[in-house]
Structure formats: C-alpha cells, structure tokens
Amino acid sequence: MKKTATVLAALMVSFAASAASAQEGTVSGAAGGAVTGAIVGGPVGAAVGGVAGAALGSIVAPPEAEVREYVVQQQVPSVQVQEQVVVGQPLPQTVTLYEVPQYTQYRYAIVNNQRVIVEPQTRQVIQVIE
Questions:
Q1: What is the per-residue pLDDT for 46?
Q2: Which of 34, 83, 107, 111 has the fewest CB atoms within 10 Å, counting from its CB?
C-alpha cells in the first residue's frame, strides 16, 4: 500500500512539474520527470517520473512571432482532410509541409483553411493560427 501511494505521489508531482514547465515554454522531459520522481519516491519514483516526463517532454515550445507572421503572409493551397486539426496531433502524410526560412525547427501548412505550424519530424501541430 505504501509503495502504491509513493508511486502515485511521484506521478502527480511529475505531471505537475512538467505541466508548469510547459507553460513557461520549456519542458524538461524524461530527465526532469525522473529527478522529480526520485525526490518524492526514490528509485521507484524516478522510474515513474521518467516515463511520465518523457510522455510530456515531447511538447514543443510555441513558435516565435516572426514564424507566425511569415506563415500568415504565405499563399499556398489549402488541403482538405477528414481529421480535425488539433494542437498536439500529427497531420496526415498527405499534407504538404512548407519550410519556414531561418527557422528549421518549424514547418507550416494550410489545412481545412486553417494555417498551422508543425514540428517537421513528427508532423505534430504546434499551433493553429486564428
């Protein structure tokens, strides 16, 4: 029973720490989760915190204002897809991603008449520009 409570406490602290970091624009990932978990629950907490931190650690920081301004100005065709465009979800492989000059960590597309900024390796939507 004590172990279960320790693991649950480590998991909750890990999620809270990762969420707070994400709000500030930085995410510590597996390493931060493991450290937080180790503080609360020792070796078991480190293992649980590392897994939780890795899951939340894939969040990419919001793009700079220059990236958003560039994307808004571009005239590329909109691609229609059945899936809803949601931050955190990948775009289908059928959607063409366009480069953002000087910002290689981002790509963009226009999907269902919405401009989106995407992380190129995972195709994960980082931001939908309204």
A1: 53
A2: 83
Domain boundaries, the chain: 2-56, 65-129
**Quick check: 35 pLDDT over 90?**
no
The torsion angles phi and psi of 116, rounded to 5 degrees, stand at -130, 145
Interatomic CA distance for residues 129 and 67, integer angstroms: 11
> How far, CA to CA in Å, does 37 sit from each of 18, 27, 54?
11, 15, 12
Kindly indicate the confidence band of residue 73, based on its pLDDT and cuts at 50, 70 and 90.
very high
Determine contact, residues 79/108, Cβ cutoff 8 Å: no
Q: Which contacts qualify for 16-20: CB closer than 8 Å, 24 or more apart?
A: 18/52, 18/53, 18/56, 18/57, 19/56
> DSSP 3-state helix, strand, coil percentages of the chain (rounded to 5)?
45, 15, 40
3-state secondary structure of 20: helix
* The Cα angle at residue 67 between residues 17 and 126, in degrees rounded to 5: 40
